[in-house]
Amino acid sequence: MHKQEHKQYKLDKIDLEIVHHLYDGRTPYKDVAEKIGLTTNTVRNRVNKMLELGVLQIISLVDPNAVDRHESAFIGFKITPYDINKTMEQIAGLKGVVGAATVSGRFDIIAVVMFNEEHSYSRFLDEELAKVDNLLGMETFFAIGGKTWQLRYVL
Questions:
Q1: Of 62, 81, 80, nearest to 72 (Cα)?
Q2: Is residue 12 a part of any domain in this protein?
Q3: Which of 1, 79, 85, 148 gets the most CB atoms within 10 Å of its CB?
Q4: Does residue 154 form part of some domain?
């Protein structure tokens, strides 16, 4: 299977149980296997398949409030309806974007973006947004806290 096939791949109950036990990303496969009654090889094979298909990533996360002079925001984008997939790819590829998704509601796309002194919000507006086609408007919501607010570090 190739990464493009992941859209058809659905995680089953066993996959979800494995993912649940890998929550911190450091649990040995042997421990996961013992907890859910599988062999270590079965857990390893299933994890490798999910990684290969792109339906699972094992990554480190950071609380952006714990990183000095960094901040994060949710940015909602309203775009023209011409080629939402192309625009989505453009937004997802902007510097500082941790993740982006097409959504229902008053925005078409919402992105989570990280900023620091070098890559400031105003630099993002001036330099990065020029790379986005079909942009009609946007609204920014800066994160000011959160009990479980953690992000991939992208800067």
A1: 62
A2: yes
A3: 79
A4: no
- Please tell me the total count of domains within the chain: 2
Instruction: Quote the tokens at residue 136.
Output: 């009609």
Same domain, 83 and 129: yes
Q: In angstroms, rounded to a whole number, what is the distance separating the alpha carbons of residues 103 and 97?
A: 16
Tens digit of each residue's pLDDT (9 = 90 or more) over 62-89: 888 788 999 999 999 999 988 899 999 9
Q: Which of 51-55, 84-88, 90-94 has the highest mean pLDDT?
A: 90-94
Note whether 82 and 41 are within 8 A (CB).
no
Task: Mark whether 81 and 31 lie in a shared domain.
Answer: no
Residue closest to 100 by CA, chosen among 58, 30, 154: 154
CB of 57 closer than 8 Å to CB of 141 = no
- Say whether pLDDT at 118 is over 60: yes
pTM of the predicted protein model: 0.78
Structure tokens at 50: 């999910």
Q: Which of 131, 129, 134, 91 is nearest to 109 (CA)?
A: 91
- The CATH number given to whatever domain includes residue 47 is 1.10.10.10
Q: Which residue segment(s) compose the domain that 111 sits in?
A: 64-142
Q: Is 87 among the domain residues?
A: yes
